[in-house]
Amino acid sequence: MTRQDLIDVIGRALMPTAVLPRAEEVRELTERLRDHVTRLAREVEDRTGAMTPSTDERRHATSAVEDARRELGAGPGPGLRSAVAHMQNLARVCQRLRCHSSSGAARSAEPRRTSPRARNGQDQAPPVSGSGTCRNGM
Predict the structure, then answer these.
(1) Of 10, 53, 77, 101, which one's alpha carbon is 20 to 30 angstroms from that of 84?
(2) 80 found inside a domain
(3) pLDDT profile of the chain (138 residues), mean per 10
(4) Is 38 exposed, middle or buried (0-12, 13-18, 19+ CB in 10 A)?
(5) Is 93 within the bounds of a domain?
(6) Is residue 124 part of a domain?
(7) Closest CA to 114 of 126, 105, 102, 106
(8) Per the domain annotation, does 133 fall within a domain?
(9) Which three-class secondary structure state does DSSP give residue 133?
(10) Would you give the DSSP letter of residue 120?
């Protein structure tokens, strides 16, 4: 899984929409997000060992890993609405983890990219971590 795949799947999962996505799409995105969350949680957990204890950076990274574990342990629920909420929660956890991963930490200071649609004032997906949106305490 590439960095671009992660950005794309988070964007798709968090895309504002007036109607619920198809169940097949929710299942596919949820599966991909679970893979990303699992990989990123391991990476961030490994990185926290090298962080100075009792710092905000370490507390935020540890909190992101705990949220990842909690969301991975939760299921999609009985219906489409709960499955969409679970998918979106996984996407948000992915964003937080990316801020503390080796690739996200290095990219967090970059300027936020906007799409041509955004420049024209059209709806767009929420910003994806690693695109200049990482902030401590998110």
Answers:
(1) 101
(2) yes
(3) 87 93 97 97 94 92 96 94 97 95 57 40 44 49
(4) middle
(5) yes
(6) no
(7) 126
(8) no
(9) coil
(10) T
Residues with Cβ within 8 Å of 87's Cβ and at least 6 positions away in sequence, in order, are 13, 26, 29, 30, 33, 76
The kind and range of the H/E element at 85 are: helix 80-100
CB 73 within 8 A of CB 131: no
Q: Which domain holds residue 84?
A: 3-119
The pTM is what? Answer: 0.76
What's the rounded Cα separation, in Å, for the pair 36 and 105?
16
Number of domains composing the chain = 1
Judged by phi (left if over 0) then psi (alpha if -120 to 50, else beta), residue 81 lies in: alpha
Angle at 48 between CA 57 and CA 126, to 5 degrees: 55
Structure tokens at 63: 């909190």
CB 130, CB 98: distance < 8 Å: yes
